[in-house]
């Protein structure tokens, strides 16, 4: 009886551990695509982020761009990352693609880096996560709602 | 009694194994940062505006890992992760930015560059991490409108692009101009909220605030400083905000873009 109880408990405990710690850890990464403005040339990069698989990518403003070069990535809770990707976001008010990408990277403990052209330009106005101005506080609240 | 002891001992072993093994994948990705960040901090103090190159390599090559710097100093890191300094005359010829390795077992990835290349790669990594930590810290005691946080975050961008020894007098002016822009945006947002102005007028005011702020910053920086900070020439300020907003759409029409 002891053996059976112990075995059952071990199996249940292992399943619980896997569910909570292991299966939600996915690779989250950001990509950058150069933008060629007609008169200014290439001076900034569009960014987007992907969670887990390369066909599970999120871009702000409904852009369907793919490809480009990797920027950075790390392992994090994929569910939380996907949740953050859906947080209230008005393109041009909360930020641009850089801020939206940072929100998804948050789960991996990462932000974009200076190799993204135009990042400092957008951050001057919108900050890292686009939580300033008329919708200040919404990102923080949404983040909490996603489990942070 | 004996059976109870054996049962609880076995249970402890299982719990310990679960804790150690299952979060392993998440722990591994932070190892590189833990190795390199203390080193980056040290060089940040000593080398000021010089660029720090980070070398990330697979664990089996750790013994020969080399960390190079723009001013031709390098450091080696041995198996015990002890870093020693040495002077070299030449960095590698090819540039490899941060390499994307779809390998859950990698500890660190290799990247290097030459003096004339985009040598802020590693420095950018360091400040990217710093930005995340700053945001974490700020979230503990957020301001009402988020302006203080944005201004503090931009300080890291100034450090990254212009070095930590960039004059405080210019930094203070950048902070003032940025805060003024944010306050003006806040006023415009209030007017929009109260329907005093429409979307078009709000967007126009927002654009003006931004480009005026950039112009004020351009007036206190040299051409090189401005370009290093914003990857933009002073003559390109007009229209830059609109281009930034259109980036997501413009990139879809980018010639030569690799579409998978």
Describe, in short, the structure shown.
The complex is a heterodimer of chains A (148) and B (260). Chain A is α+β, with helices and mostly antiparallel strands. Chain A has helices spanning 2-22, 78-85, 97-105, 119-126, 138-145; strands at 25-37, 41-51, 57-58, 69-77.
Q: How would you summarize the topology of this molecule?
A:
The complex is a heterodimer of chains A (148) and B (260).
Chain A: H1 2-22, E1 25-37, E2 41-51, E3 57-58, E4 69-77, H2 78-85, H3 97-105, H4 119-126, H5 138-145
Antiparallel strand pairs in A: 1-2, 1-4, 2-3
Chain B: H1 2-21, H2 24-29, H3 31-47, E1 65-68, E2 73-77, E3 83-87, H4 121-138, H5 147-162, H6 168-193, H7 199-220, H8 223-230, H9 240-245, H10 247-250
Description:
With 148 residues, chain A is α+β, with helices and mostly antiparallel strands. In chain A, 36% of the residues lie in helices and 24% in strands. In chain A, a hairpin with a 5-residue loop joins strand 2 and strand 3 (57-58). In chain A, helix 2 (78-85) packs antiparallel against helix 3 (97-105). The mean pLDDT of chain A is 80. Chain B has ten helices and three strands. In chain B, a hairpin with a 5-residue loop joins strand 2 and strand 3. In chain B, helix 4 runs antiparallel to helix 5 (147-162), helix 5 packs antiparallel against helix 6 (168-193) and helix 6 (168-193) packs antiparallel against helix 7. Chain B is elongated. The termini of chain B are far apart. Chains A and B meet through helix 1, strand 1, strand 2, strand 4 and helix 4 of A and helix 1, helix 2, helix 4, helix 5 and helix 6 of B.
